[in-house]
């Protein structure tokens, strides 16, 4: 939920997509850019990969790389929640209102979590370094059923989600090390890549930039911000 200035995003799916003040978004499959008109002021919830589907039954493949107005998905009563949060005097109260809304929703569900939730969370735990075929065998589940349920609950295939998580791990390591990478080969190996060219191709495909360029530009950005 945004209580500041309007903004838009650009991604491979949308040259320009105006972002509603209160919205739901699914899995991002590629990098995207923000265009801000003014300062934004946001509060929101980042769910585990299957969380939105488990709570609201939404077909998450419809929300990948999207920003959809909350009221269009969950009804006009979401405007009341948006207004109450906007009127709150501090961040703690806003968070409490959001938490109460979600807990109320959760209390009405019966066993919302299943093996697909487990599989998606395991992919996160393993940083995407996981054999999906072996995972399916371990779950004793039909491959076609698993693929259909994963797409429904997460928005992308399990194999593609694992690829996203591996790149996410690399980016997390960049941040943890303040964008300085002293041993690329070690980092690539820990992320589960055994071929440098494959890593570079995959990283560039998700971020739009080669790893060394991406890291260097963020070092320059960090230096610029520290001087302001």
TrEMBL record:
Residues 124-217 form the HTH araC/xylS-type domain. It comes from the Bacteria. InterPro entries: AraC_XylS_family_regulators (IPR050204), DUF6597 (IPR046532), HTH_AraC (IPR018060). Signal peptide: none annotated. The keyword Transcription regulation applies. Keywords: DNA-binding, Transcription, Transcription regulation. Pfam families: DUF6597, HTH_18. This is HTH araC/xylS-type domain-containing protein. It comes from Nibrella viscosa.
């Amino acid at each position: 939920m945004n209580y500041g200035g309007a903004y838009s995003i650009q991604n491979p799916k949308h040259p320009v997509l105006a972002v509603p003040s209160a919205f739901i978004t699914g899995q991002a499959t590629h990098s995207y850019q923000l265009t801000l008109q003014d300062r934004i002021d946001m509060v929101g919830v980042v769910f585990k990969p299957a969380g939105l589907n488990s709570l609201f039954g939404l077909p998450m493949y419809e929300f990948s790389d999207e920003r959809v107005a909350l009221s269009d998905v969950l009804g006009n009563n979401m405007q009341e929640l948006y207004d109450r949060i906007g009127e709150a005097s501090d961040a703690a109260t806003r968070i409490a209102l959001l938490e109460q809304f979600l807990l109320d929703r959760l209390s009405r569900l019966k066993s919302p979590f299943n093996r697909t939730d487990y599989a998606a969370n395991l992919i996160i735990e393993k940083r995407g370094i996981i054999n999906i075929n072996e995972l399916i065998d371990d779950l004793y589940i039909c491959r076609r059923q698993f693929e259909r349920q994963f797409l429904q609950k997460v928005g992308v295939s399990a194999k593609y989600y694992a690829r996203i998580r591996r790149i996410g791990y690399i980016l997390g390591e960049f941040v943890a090390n303040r964008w300085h990478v002293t041993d690329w080969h070690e980092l690539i190996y820990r992320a589960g890549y055994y071929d440098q060219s494959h890593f570079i191709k995959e990283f560039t495909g998700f971020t739009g930039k080669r790893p060394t360029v991406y890291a260097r530009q963020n070092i320059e950005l960090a230096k610029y911000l520290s001087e302001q």
